[in-house]
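Follow-up to my earlier ticket, as requested here are the two runs.
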Amino acid sequence: MTISPPRSPRQNIAAQDTANTLLALNAVRVFEDRPFIYTSGWASPVYVDCRKLMSDAARRTLLMDHAAALLREKLGTSIDCIAGTETAGIPFACWLAERLNLPMVYVRKKAMGWGINAQIEGDLPVGARCLLVDDLTTDGLSKIGAALALRQAGATVRDVFVVFNYDIYPQSKQAYADHQIELHSLATWHDIFSLTKVMSYFSPERAKEIKDFLQDPMRWSVEHGGAGALPNAQERTV
């Protein structure tokens, strides 16, 4: 598991609340007979379903308040537009745009084939400094693709926010760095796994399986049918 940089007290509280919330909502799902396969092709024994936050107003408010406070603290006035990703990023972008009093657009996964900014919906301000928002990130490739679409449409994108960052794929940080993007998140797998150990949330067998995955997700994926094994797995979009 990768080591995250030191956090502020505010970030620690946000991470703890996020981990508690995801567990309380049963948003941390564990495979039964077949691993989850992400759209990136990686196989995983676990899947974090941040979409469950949409249906719990109190917990959603708590985490979005944390997110807005942290983004004000870290980014200040360096952004002037929120951009959500289709589809999971759209509601989180809406809630953040409302709190930060900023305009919002969203980025389609594929261009529609017509219009000036065929992949961007909404009025993108000229030269907008956009914060890209999504629910979570695994290896970061889909976020980088969305950021590049915004840049092609004339925006400046240097920051990405997600509720949950897996923070275990070694190539992810390098990919963001290569594209001059800083990733911001409320919590990572370190936060969730640390809490589940205290709670004895997983059985010893499941906990060992997940620990093996977190320590070397690429090896675990190859050994469990990742990369091209979609027909034989529970396919999930992340």
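Run two:
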Amino acid sequence: MPHYTLPSTTVQDYVRQGAVVLRGVLSPAEVAQLARGIEHNLAHLSPLAMVASQADDPGKFVEDFCTWQHNADYADVMQHSALPRVAAQLMQSDTVRIYHDHLLVKEPGTRQPTPWHQDQPYYNVAGRQNVSFWIPVDPVPLESTLRFVAGSHAGTWYMPRTFRDQQAKWFPEGALAELPQIDAHPDQFEQLGWALQPGDAVAFHMLTLHASSGVGPGTRRRVFSARYLGDDARHAVRSWRTSPPFAGLADRLPDGAVMDDALFPLLNWR
């Protein structure tokens, strides 16, 4: 496990802002490994894969989930790079547990934006100790990077909706607050975003509001996202299909249980 100790200011920024940039957190060899894993994933998409862009989009936005256990390159980076140690520091957690992986590829010319949203309302997890790493294997300019609303992880849960047609398929209509008009009020919502090089990553809380734009005609944006849970994570049984879904998990783990299942292994990060 690579020894990667964060400055205390980075941890403080994560607690305060809900998102931080990590420069050079992965080595060139690990970036190459992730790129190889991404290409393997694209050639062997799982049943959970989807095209998140419109049919008339000149590019294509491809997503896939939960393939790390069948992808040796993903598994190695998720378990044996600096990521678990960094996750422990950011979450301020004694334990680090894999939650899931997420592939996000925007092919050149993709117009489809990723709208403002939080991740945790789509999930089957309760608790505050969590972190997602957004890791590009291609250079990402500022105009197509992932953007965050600073401090938006403080507690409010916003209504999760489908990206293309804004349907409420998770919580019932009216159950959660609606998203504010973030881009229309830049004075009210401080946005964070960083241009990234391969080896860099951004780390963010699962309740931090985030969004991104499409990519230019000469830009391919291949991103691997690794998600981890900490000490206080508990299973939140939903009466609907979560995204991603974990079929049969509710039969093994009751509501409120520690996420102690083979799908979510504990890592020895020290």
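The only thing I checked on run two: The chain has a mean pLDDT of 95. Let me know what else you need.
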